[in-house]
Amino acid sequence: MADAAVKTAPADASEAELTDGFHLIIDALKLNGLNTIYGVPGIPITDFGRMAQAEGIRVISFRHEQNAGYAASIAGFLTKKPGVCLTVSAPGFLNGLTALAHATTNCFPMILISGSSEREIVDLQQGDYEEMDQLAIAKPLCKAAFRVLHAADIGIGLARAIRAAVSGRPGGVYLDLPAKLFGQVMDAEKGEKSLVKVIDAAPAQIPAPDSIKRALDVLKGAKKPLIILGKGAAYAQADDAIRSLVEKSGIPFLPMSMGKGLLPDTHPLCAGAARSTVLKDSDVVMLIGARLNWLLSHGKGKAWGEAPKKFVQIDIEPKEMDSNVEIVAPVVGDIGSCVSALLAGMGGWATPPADWIKTVTSKRDENVAKMAPRLMNNNSPMDYHGALGVLRTIVKERPDAILVNEGANTLDLARGIIDMYQPRKRIDVGTWGIMGIGMGYSIAAAIETGKPVLAIEGDSAFGFSGMEVETICRYKLPVCIVIFNNDGIYRGTDVNKVSSDPAPTVFVKGSRYDKMMEAFGGVGVNATSPDELRRAVNEAMDSGKPTLINAVLDPAAGSESGRIGNLNPQSALKKKA
User: Fold this and answer.
1) pTM of the model
2) What whole-number distance in Å separates Cα of residue 320 and Cα of residue 291?
3) Residues 107-145: pLDDT tens digits?
């Protein structure tokens, strides 16, 4: 890589002040308020990280690019500004690309910036260091991809990346920066003028008045209406308007996992604990920032019952409408504008029939009462319900903390058991249901919000990003990690009957993940009962010290694939006796 050029003052009046690609990229980021970079240093971007830090940008250095990418993606969700991930070329780029695709699928604004080999060598396939046509690879997996070849185009390149990431339906953008670009020198005054401050990157998209009237007419005719709040509703940060719409309409609402907390899960209209009933029995469903994908059984099938449904959908992407079922009242626009327009058009509003509200309330209360005793046990070793009962109370007492959650049973049970009270406080695996987001999300959540983080991890899920506990300790972040350790994937009881190798889903028995945290100067605790878990988590949250709690669960606790075992293909052949 070319030696880093620096901004140089003129020796005399006849000499022009110079700048280079390094400084222009840094200045362009700062001009647009992008003051944090998540990444992994290495050729050809090592000097860039040092220089960005020296110029006041916070550079968070990870142990693996995929985790840095997840951090950038959730930073975008939490702030509505593109999270920035910086990687080296080829393998580093590919590691970050998983997170970029994840951001695009989940509609999180993110920019992946990667160094790359020179075009003339790549195009002739001459075998450069980490040679790869990164732009071509990235294009199918993200919302947009750009390459900058000349220092004078850096300002435009970043501006286009920002607009693409946040406008319309947000998503991931790739920005390719060949190594030679960093060292390119140009006149400093011309360089400054080439930078672009992006104005109104995500302008409001006002819904058509006819679509608002149509949606209200459909809702008025409903006998058993339901509102579903997705993570798009949380991203929109239209919290007051959404709450007003729910309460003014009197319609029960079902929050999707990352939509929890827009209204408290304890709100009288929350149908979270009556999910099966409201999906099956509702007659009109309004989706706000939620998609009828696999997480909602595609809007059809047994989960939705036999009675015909009418769907109202609010989404900024017109192509989302009718993706699985007919949408009788599509409302296209940004969520804040759409919800405000609905409120303005409601006028005198008749709340839903009392018998529907009574049905939903009764089923919710029945399910909550049925679950309560299971959450109060003090078994040792623990089961999921005893452990989650403790964490449920802690989250209630600390509603401002960020909850990060991943795993199979750990995720599926936690999102149903732990109530949330504020928006954007629960972040998890998202649309793809992937494992590995835990530590990246935790790091970004702590940095972007300044709030304490409680990460509830399955032992398998933790393994994807576990080395980032060193990053958490290095930056002294207020993150408390609880690992539900039942010695395996789903559970630790599978047996290999044909050899001495362990079964594919079984881990080392009695693993002590808490020792990992101690190795890097953090606090490690081994908790074998709900009482011990309660004490350890409260101490960690009070202290703000990086803490990892090894929560010892019964190896038999857990079920195959959590609650989505139906997605696991079964062999058509009978097992041999």
Assistant:
1) 0.95
2) 8
3) 999 999 999 988 888 888 888 888 899 999 999 999 999
